[in-house]
Amino acid sequence: MIHLRGAKALRIAAIAATSGLALLAGVTSAAAETTVKWLHLEANPAYVAIWRKIADEYQVKHPGTKIEMQFLANEAFKAKLPTLLQSKDAPDLFYSWGGGVLKQQQQTGTLLDLTKAMDAKDGAWKKSYNQAAIKGLTFDGKVSAVPYQMGTVSFFYNKALFAKAGVDADAIKTWDDYLAAVKKIKAAGIVPIAGGGGEKWPIHFYWSYLVMRDGGQQVFSDAKNGKGKGFNDPAVIKAGEQLAELGKLDPFQPGYLGATWPQTLGVFGDGKAAMILSFETTVATQRVNSGDGKGLADDNIGRFAFPAVTGGAGAPTDTLGGLNGWAVTKKAPPETLDFLAYLTSAENERTIAQAGLIIPVADGAQDGIKSPLMRGAADQLAHSTWHQNFFDQDLGPSVGRVVNDISVGIASGQISPKDGAQQVQDAFEQDQL
Predict the structure, then answer these.
(1) Domain annotation for the chain: domains and CATH numbers
(2) Which of 27, 179, 209, 221 lies at a 20 to 30 A Cα distance from 399?
(3) How many DSSP H helices and E strands does the chain contain?
(4) What number is the average pLDDT over the span 108-127?
C-alpha cells in the first residue's frame, strides 16, 4: 500500500481547495460513488496491470471513488478521440502526446485548465515534476496536461544478428555508416530493419530525425512558424532524399507496408530483423509482442542514437521523442485531479519505472530506472541539446497526417522527396487558414 504523507498530502489538499472539492488527503465525502473514466491506449498487459494496481490502491483509500479504465488501440484512439471529446461519453482523463494536437484540444474548449490547481500552495504540485515537462505541456500560459513521462526514439538492435553480419554498432556514427551497416546486414541474408508501414507514423521517425540532423532546430522552427522556405527548405528535401536512399535498399521485412506497430515489435522480438527505430520501452514491448511472449533476452539487445549527418546543421545530441501526459476534460469530476496527483506521484512513477516502462518526470522517481537500456535513454535525454516532440504531434493532426503519409511514400518510392516536402508545406498553409 502506498501512503500519502507530508508534502504530497499538502499537494492533494491544495488541489482539493482550488477545485472546490470536499477532498483532503485520504478523505472523501459521504456522497454517492463517483466514477473517474480513464482512457488509455496501452496494449501491454504488464503495463496495464501496474496501472490497475495503483488504481485499486487508490480506490481502497478513497472508497467513494471508482477508477474505470477504458482502452482504444492507437489508431482508433487518434481517429475517435476528437468526436468522443465532444460527446456525453467523453473520458475524464486521457493520454496525450502533447504538442500541436494537445494545443488544438485546448483551443476547442474541451480541456480543463490545470494552472490554478497546479499553482495552489506556492505551486507545490507543479514543482513536483521536471519543469521542462511542465513547460512543454503549457500553451498560452495554461497547463493543459499533467506530465507523465519523457522519452526518446533510438535504434535497438539484436546483438547476435549484428555479430553474424559482422557489424559493429559502436562504429555507426553517421548516416553513411548506417547505410553501410544496412547493406552488410542484408548481404548476410538478414532483414536489416523491422518497419511499421501499416500505421505510417513509425516511418515518420526516419524522416523527422533526418530533417533534424540536416536542418537543425532553426530550419524546423522556421518551417512550423511559416518563415523562410518553410518545409520546402533544401535541408528538408535532402532529408527526404536520404530516406529514399534507405528505401531503395529494401531494408524492411516483407509486407512492412501493412504491418501494425505491435506486429513490427513482434518481428524484432522474434529475431526476424536486426534492428528497429523505436521507443525507450522497446525491451518490454518486443517481449510482449513476440510469438513466444519472451522475445529477445535483455542482454541480446543493444541501443544506439540516431546517427549524425555529415555536414548537417543538427547536432547528434538532438533528440526526437515524446513528452506525454494526462489531459483532463472540463466535465470531469474533481476527484480526477486527486487521482492524477496520486498516479503521477514520485512513489508511483518510481514503481512504473522499476518495471522498465517509463522515464519518469516526477522529481525523485528517476532512481527507479533499473534497465541499462532505459538508463541509457534517460542519460541521452539528460544531455539533449534539443528535444523535439514527434513531428506528427507537434505540427497538429492535419499536418501530422501528411507527415506520416509522405514518410511512407518516400521510403517506398511512391513519392519524390521534393513532392513530399511540398505536400507538408501545402498542408501547413491550409492549416493556417
Answers:
(1) 6-150+322-376 (3.40.190.10), 154-320+389-432 (3.40.190.10)
(2) 179
(3) 18, 13
(4) 95
Strand partners, 94: 39, 327
State pLDDT tens for residues 10-36: 344 444 434 433 333 344 344 459 999
Residue 183 to residue 75: CA distance in whole angstroms:
32
The count of other CB atoms within 10 Å of the CB of residue 376 is 18
213-235: burial string, b at 16+ Cβ within 10 Å, e else: bbbbeebbebbbeeeeebbebeb
Q: Which residues contact 180 (CB under 8 A, 6 or more apart)?
A: none
**Which pLDDT value is given to residue 9?**
42
Average model confidence (pLDDT) across the chain: 92
Task: Find the helix packing angle between 201-224 and 417-432, rounded to 10°.
Answer: 60
Q: Is the dihedral of CA 388, 143, 336, 38 positive or negative?
A: negative
Distant-in-sequence contacts of 363-370, Cβ < 8 A, 24+ apart: 363/127, 363/128, 363/129, 363/130
Write the DSSP string, 183-248. HHHHHTT---B---TTTSHHHHHHHHHHHHHHHHHHHHHHHHTT-TTGGGSHHHHHHHHHHHHHHH
Which of helix, strand or coil describes residue 252? strand
- The residue-averaged pLDDT of 95-117 equals 93
As a dihedral over the C-alpha atoms of residue 206, residue 146, residue 105, residue 432, rounded to 10 degrees, the angle is -50
| Predicted pLDDT of residue 22 | 35
**pLDDT tens for each residue of 144-167:** 999 999 999 999 999 999 999 999
Question: Is-contact 368 351, C-beta < 8 A?
Answer: yes
Query: pLDDT at position 32, please?
Result: 57
Task: Identify which has the larger pLDDT, 27 or 358.
Answer: 358
Q: pTM for the whole thing? A: 0.85
Taking 50 as the threshold, does the pLDDT of residue 84 lie above it?
yes
Q: CB of 391 within 8 A of CB of 359?
A: no
What's the pLDDT score for residue 382?
87
pLDDT at 11: 43
* Distance in angstroms (rounded) separating the CA atoms of residues 16 and 8: 13
Reduced to 3 states (helix: H, G, I; strand: E, B; else coil), residue 27 is strand
Alpha-carbon distance of 196 to 252, in angstroms, equals 9
